[in-house]
Amino acid sequence: MTTPLLSLSGLTKAYPGVVANDTVSFEIGVGEIHALLGENGAGKSTLVKMIYGLVKPDSGLMKMHGDDFAPVDPRAARAAGVGMVFQHFSLFDALSVAENIALGMEAPPPMATLASRISEVSENYGLPLSPDRTVGDLSAGERQRVEIIRCLLQDPKLLIMDEPTSVLTPQEVDILFETLRKLKAEGTAILYISHKLEEIRALCDAATILRGGKNVGTCVPRDTSAREMAELMVGSTLATPKGAAHATGDVMLSVTGLSAASPSAFGMALKDISFEVQAGEVLGIGGVAGNGQDELLGVLSGELPCIPGMVQFQGRDLSGIGPEERRGLGVLAAPEERLGHAAAPDMSLTENAMLTGMAREKLSKGGMLNWARARDFAERIIADFDVRTPGPHNAARSLSGGNLQKFVIGREVLQRPEVLVVNQPTWGVDAAAAASIRQALLDLAAGGTALVIISQDLDELMEISDRFAALNEGRLSAPVPTAGLDVEQIGLMLGGAHGMEVAHV
Amino acid sequence: MIRLEKRPQPSATMSWATPLLAVVATMIFGGALFAALGKDPIEAILTIFWEPLFGEFSFFYRPQLLIKGAPLVLIAIGLALGFKAGIWNIGAEGQYIVGAICGAGAGLAFYPTESIFIFPLMILAGALGGCLWALIPGFLKVRFGTNEILVSLMLVYVAEQLLASMSLGLLKNPEGFGFPGSRNLQQYPSAHNAEIITNTGMHWGVVAALIAVIFSYVLLTRHRLGFAIRVTGEAPRAAKFGGVNPARLILFCLGMSGLLAGLAGMFEVAGPSGQISIDFNVGYGFTAIIVAFLGRLNPLGIVAAGLLMALTYIGGDIAQSQLGLPAAAIQVFQGMLLFFLLALDVLTNYRVRFGTGEVA
Amino acid sequence: MDLSAINPILLIAAMIAASTPILLAAIGELVVERAGVLNLGVEGMMITGAVCGFIITVNTGSPTVGFIAAAVGGAVLSLLFAFLTQVALANQVASGLALTLFGLGLSALMGQSYVGIKPPRTEATPLGPLADIPVIGPIVFGHDMIVYLGLAIVAATWATLKFTRVGLVLRAVGENHDAAHALGYKVKRIRTAAIFFGGACAGLGGAYISLIRVPQWTEGMTAGVGWIALALVVFASWKPWRVLLGAYLFGGITQLQLNLQGAGVAIPVEYLAMSPYIVTIIVLVILSSDKSRAPGSLGRTFHASG
């Protein structure tokens, strides 16, 4: 066998209280697409940060082409031929595509030259992108292209991609895979991080699976079943949530011709959205982030204003009614951003329980707060939703992502809402916790609550929703029953009219 | 290599220890400053912190502690409400001036009538004046998104000019032989904010400060409005999600801090100062910012910090007359205190670690 | 009242001079804010520059050395702010206020034995016959070097931000410090450099007041110019040339009200003296609707979490 492009041996990195990577070793060959597979918190991010020079390993050795490789910073890693496309794009909204790309290069050519090279590369690899556009105005897929082109301009030998398809429509995924195969053919190796097994089986030559910071196995994805890989990844078999056959009832929430501006400069306005949700029904709203999800949740929770008549609860107009009063009526919500939106990071869990529980849990009387009751409520959430924390006096930010998510979902579920709107219920949560959250939501629906679940995870929506609609560029497709939908149809719904142009380039 | 590591949650120990450490550090560096000015540092520090409390003339200085401390505490309590919510009223000095003008104006309008209603009316006028002055930046922020820091500060300069205009014009003492300045309210019994108990420094402003402390303590710990203030400061989006109306909160915080600053100005002009004059304001509105931070925006902490600051004022005066220490040295001393406090505050939220770590 | 006592040519020339301190302080703060840092200590750095420049000029007899000292003074003070916000990760608003309060006290202490002294005159730039051209001469060519230096700094700042790599990196750090860090840029180092530059500019602006505009030393003599400079950066939507425009507007109003005071207009002096501050508020109100131009990371504390 020839010398591998990159070989890792015994990489270890510990943070206070957690060993993120424990003696991880594997190799990536030249022109190989190598999958790095694992659940959230398995140590994938830390590992690639070490390769990219953002984090220094405590011990262990990296070799590139047989020579020692220990990048002190990302610059050194890039100089050695490593490029990285981040999951959360490290882009600058207010700057142009060309400026963004220049920032990621060691010695960028003059702007005019750079612009023409960008056009050239984008054409070669089938990634249409205009160098003059302001990045803040681009769609998620286009933003990803900026990152990819930035890397490609430096002729990387190894391209690291962190969950690249999580923000793409199925059609955009196809375009991306074409590009990656072309790169492979040219001899570029790709380290592909994902937890989507079918994708990996379709694309990758080899896979390394991490669990709890350890390498638990390497396999050839084409020859391994998705089930085998999943069991390696999770370490146990999973229970899939079971929904009772929903007896749907009266219309609880109805949205009619909803249009609303976005509060942020690079946000997405909502355009003429209409839907209804009945008691006991789960409406799943899919779509790539940045297409109006935050705005829709804001209007439904009462954080953003809307025109009278657009949003009604049991026939009652909700315009001009704030979040607090809506909770009193039974309309609850759980936003996507856990830290800073759903919860105040530096405040205790008791205080965070008070944040939304005030009205329905009767935590205040005549304006005076009852902290004892709030603590009881917080303790109930912790117990019922298996939130791992020493106690309700701990700050929200001290919880892991999954535990905090269980807390904020549990906080709303335990209030027995009439209508519950959730944005990204299981984002960044490990599989076991995700399953328990989904089960709690299904139980809530079985009890007669009308649920609106906004998510980017299509598998999740297919699993728990009764009807499905796609949000694209602030517009919502007409909801259709989930039963019998296939990926192609969903892709078309998600792409919308605008997405189609991109898809057919 | 030294690096900072974020604590999973703020350290309770450090949160009360840092103000004390800051005071100690300020004494050390302040002492060095005094030494550089050619004064004996130990003697200077003792003169500032010991003389007023336990020195030969402490019977005279101790009441001063209340007289100087009350306006600082009163203003700082109001500022802390806003600071906690991330609403930065730094124009308390202006609200203090306007409160004094309105309070004195309301009293002088009735001169020389004597009535028990005059003093309460002056309190109302002072509070209202300060409140309205602070609501200008509040209203502009809510309506137009204007930065309240800059507007409230600009209004200090406007208020100072207004004060000059009042001392030279409308409120000028007609029997003052042409000197600028209003009639002396100390000589107008119905309007005089006299000491409640003689020679204690205890005047109605001190009572108001105590009420404000209790009020804000209850508000912040027990009332939903106080909770709204705290959540807004910690995480504005979470507060909005929780149902806080940001506009109303801005108006409340600015209005309340202006009201308290206005009250402070009114009690000052009707009591210790006695008259509206061009140099009526001595910077309480700015020093109160230090008091608010030094007290960790906590009502009880503010009482301690206010008294400490009052002490540096009084001790500074003594050091000025006895040691020839320049008045500005005390100002530097106070500024230093805020610096050390902010610098040491990092220990509350972060651990300092030595040794190699992440690539920066 | 005698408005004819106001000579329009001298008035315009004086307006340009009056705008220079604001211009210098504002262009420095613009760079700081473009790097994502809100330094509210401009007033404190200006007054420190004013006193440093004054003391050194009086002692050396050279305004040039004095101005250099002023820039150094302002910059050194700004390093305190850089320490608080970049190393100790303190709140930027509170740290800026601390800097102003400290600077006001420090300058009063340093300058106490200099009250009432007249500093050596700063000469007009020797531009020879150009200054003798009627009308244009006194308005354009009759100024001291600092006026031209101010204009040069504005032009240089504009060109640097727009065309150079340094400018691009600075803007990137101000837009999104996490992304800049991920790309390997030294966020804190770049910000500290920007703060330092802002301090030097504010110091120069302050010295212009104590050495040329007034010229003498009095406590608190900057009288809010630093705060107006902060407002001006918002007014300018963080664009260098608009800072110049705004500085001329504010300088113009300040000078005009001084001339009106001198001419004995029937408006009380106090109300004229309020006008620059009130105009600042009005301008802030008009321009606050457009916040979209503000740097994305402005005022946020950066800490690399690894």
Q: Could you walk me through the main structural features you see in this protein, from its secondary elements to its overall organization?
A:
The complex is a heterotrimer of chains A (505), B (360) and C (306). With 505 residues, chain A is an alpha/beta fold. Chain A is 34% helix and 23% strand. Chain A has 16 helices and 23 strands. Chain A has helices at 44-51, 74-79, 97-103, 111-124, 140-152, 170-185, 197-203, 226-234, 293-301, 323-329, 349-357, 371-384, 401-413, 431-446, 458-464, 487-503, and strands spanning 6-15, 18-28, 33-37, 59-64, 67-68, 82-85, 158-162, 189-194, 206-211, 214-219, 251-260, 270-278, 282-286, 311-313, 316-317, 331-334, 364-365, 368-369, 419-423, 450-454, 467-472, 475-476, 480-481. In chain A, the strands form 5 sheets. In chain A, strands 13, 16, 19, 20, 21, 22 and 23 form a 7-stranded mixed sheet that branches. In chain A, strands 6-7-8-3-9-10 form a 6-stranded mixed sheet, sandwiched between helices. Chain A has a 4-stranded antiparallel sheet with strand order 2-1-4-5, covered by helices on one side. In chain A, helix 12 crosses helix 13. By secondary structure, chain B is mainly alpha-helical. Chain B has helices at residues 12-36, 41-49, 51-54, 58-84, 92-108, 118-144, 148-168, 204-222, 224-234, 236-242, 246-270, 284-294, 299-323, 327-344, 346-349; strands spanning 2-6, 350-354. A two-stranded antiparallel sheet of chain B has the order 1-2. In chain B, helix 9 (224-234) packs antiparallel against helix 10 (236-242). The mean pLDDT of chain B is 89. Chain C has 306 residues and is mainly α. Chain C has helices spanning 8-34, 42-60, 63-87, 92-111, 136-141, 145-163, 165-175, 177-182, 187-213, 225-235, 240-263, 269-287. The model of chain C has no long low-confidence stretch (mean pLDDT 87). Chains in contact: A-B, A-C, B-C.
